[in-house]
Design brief:
2 copies of one chain form a homodimer. By secondary structure, the first copy, chain A, is mainly α. Helices cover 67% and strands 0% of the residues of chain A. Chain A binds a DNA duplex through α3.
Amino acid sequence: MSPHSPPGSTRQVLLDSAKRLLWKHGYEAMSPRRILAESGAGQGSLYHHFPGKAALAAAALEEVAAEMTEAMDALFEGVPEPLAAVHRFLDIPFDPLKGCRLGRLANEAAVADPETADPALRAPLDRFFAAARTRIADALDRAAAEGRLHPGQDREMLATTMLAAVQGGFVLSRIHQDPASMRQAVAGAHLLLDSVTREPGP
Amino acid sequence: MSPHSPPGSTRQVLLDSAKRLLWKHGYEAMSPRRILAESGAGQGSLYHHFPGKAALAAAALEEVAAEMTEAMDALFEGVPEPLAAVHRFLDIPFDPLKGCRLGRLANEAAVADPETADPALRAPLDRFFAAARTRIADALDRAAAEGRLHPGQDREMLATTMLAAVQGGFVLSRIHQDPASMRQAVAGAHLLLDSVTREPGP
DNA sequence: GTCTATATATTGATAGAC
DNA sequence: GTCTATCAATATATAGAC
């Protein structure tokens, strides 16, 4: 929406602080006061550059979604073999205890409660996960075209399951305060992928 | 901890309201004011029966965890064939848009932020998901003992993946405001389970 | 045990000087 | 564009009568 601000500008400093706080504390717990303390900006600056907390958060989430989409694109363009790219996606070294930068907001009222949500907050999440599923499903389609997938597999379903395994891994790791849950969930996703894969023909 | 209160008692009415609000809005968004409005109790009652909001929430979550553990036990005891029980678990008719009563709290600071969390809030979640994983892993062990599982499968890993698929399904369905994500994630979990299953011997 | 005030801190946002 | 007040509303909790 709004063009990128110059790095180091007050507007960008506010956005960077919001991005950190949204990751660490989520939306509701990200008070304007904390943003100002984090960023060093004065009280008036926030409301000069943004209509309010929600608009700042929405802009911050747009940036996060753009960064993550870019990372997905780089991964899928950088790994020529499509199945290898999906496995690589599962092996991204997330820190499971920190939660997913976008997925962790799925249960905040302002983001995803149909009655009280601000659509501008959910939109970047919606778009990123749709894009991620498309990247994965497209890779699986290419694998199928190369004869590397057993026929008759629902590639969109498989792509959703890959994403769900990672998101569920975050949830379980946070609850147990233990990265092992993420490792196991991802291992299951690898196994599922292997189970629909067939060796390259001669 | 505390013994169950008589149904209809003010204490239990407060607990029931807290359980509803925790599911619908989460912990931080569950203000004492809302609890009192929901329950019809007077202001003083909450602080007479509980030291504060955190203690009420912890007691409410203990009840939720107990209910869900009981439901898991009923399912796994009621379905004699262990693999069928795991498939049945995946087919529990969750409402994906409502989120998981316990899993939805995984990203609240008071529940799972190592710096600020109240251990009493995370404990019931930790215990329920550990118990759930054990139920599933035990069923897979029984299936293996009956020769229904391909050998060499990590049953704990598989159990974690089943739970993660459901939790990830909740996250994705909330983000897209669409139950389809949960259906697809669960379908992937069924497929994984099938891929490690072998037909009963003669 | 329950009720009606009330207290204090924090929230998200504004006012207005510079 | 940035700053220092300041605001009204809400959050969690307490006081004290009944």
